[in-house]
Amino acid sequence: MGILWSSFASGAHAASSMTAAKPTILGSNAVNNFAGAFPTLRVVSTALLLVSSFGGVLLQLALRQLQYGAAWYMTQLALYPVLTKSATAALIGYIGDYMAQWLEYKLEQNHQKGVIGGGSCDGTQQHHKISLNSSNSRVSARSNLSIHGTYDLRRGLSIMTDGLLISGPLMHFGYAFFEHLVPVSTSPLAAMLHVIADSILLDSIFVATTFLVTGLFEGYRWQHLSSHLRSDYSSTLKASWGTSLALMPLEFVCFRYLPVSLRVLAVNFIDVVWDAVISFMVHRKRKSKQVTTESLGTATNDAVLCDEPTLRRPKIEPAFAS
């Protein structure tokens, strides 16, 4: 009797185990069939896993390098404060000038589109003019660096020189002097006074030195620079004040909550827009004078191309000679 009962129990247990295992087998088959029906899901899921894993590793490496860079910069700032701040001002000034030259390039592109659309010559003569202009543009593109062959490296280096020799050191000593006169820790009004002094006093000096340093570096004579200052200094200074007014909330946060050693760095990053505006304003009249001179020569060539009958009248030649 005991033997029969034990055999019945073992048989029932085996049957129950087979019954319990059946849904699992069916479930795995369903999953396999689903995955087989959609093989792209496996590829996508594997790719997502790889991207997430590699992305996490790359993010950790980037953060680690950023920490190393910040630690190195803080060390240089403690060892060589004036040189580090001056180099920072030079680099950010260069970026601002690049932005200004990019804006000038876009404006000139739009202007050229409007000019090419007009004209009084016929199609053949217009084709000759465009061919001459395109060949000149290809030559200038080979002799320049960037922004589709229009980037002025000499101008960018002049802005860097101004930041390295004048703007950076002046910001270092000027901010320290402001902190000595009115410590920011006393009240928020002190920080606002620092911002106003920076925008009115230091920016007035920066605008003048930008005119002079960039002009001398770019090969202009003193008499040209003096007339340039008299005609364009006030308008450029107004543009400087308007830009500083727009950036004033950010500068207030920098002066209010950052130590003196980091204010030059923070204000330099904010003032990349200010650098772009000042570089654009300083060079726009120089650019317009160059464009006027070149347009006079182009107009003479166009007159020769368009007004062919004048070549057959020798009586006009003495007028050109005189």
TrEMBL record:
One GO cellular component from the entry?
A: membrane
Look up the domain of life of the source. Eukaryota
Entry annotated with the keyword Cytoplasm: no
The residue ranges crossing the membrane are 45-63, 157-178, 190-217
Membrane topology, record value: Multi-pass membrane protein
Q: Report the subcellular localization.
A: Membrane
Question: InterPro entries, alphabetically?
Answer: Mpv17_PMP22 (IPR007248)
Tell me its family. Belongs to the peroxisomal membrane protein PXMP2/4 family.
Which UniProt keyword terms apply here?
A: Membrane, Transmembrane, Transmembrane helix
Report if keyword Methyltransferase is assigned.
no
Protein name as it appears in the record: Uncharacterized protein
Which PANTHER family does the UniProt entry name for this protein? PEROXISOMAL MEMBRANE PROTEIN 2, PEROXISOMAL MEMBRANE PROTEIN 2, PXMP2 MPV17
- A Pfam family reported for this protein in Swiss-Prot or TrEMBL: Mpv17_PMP22
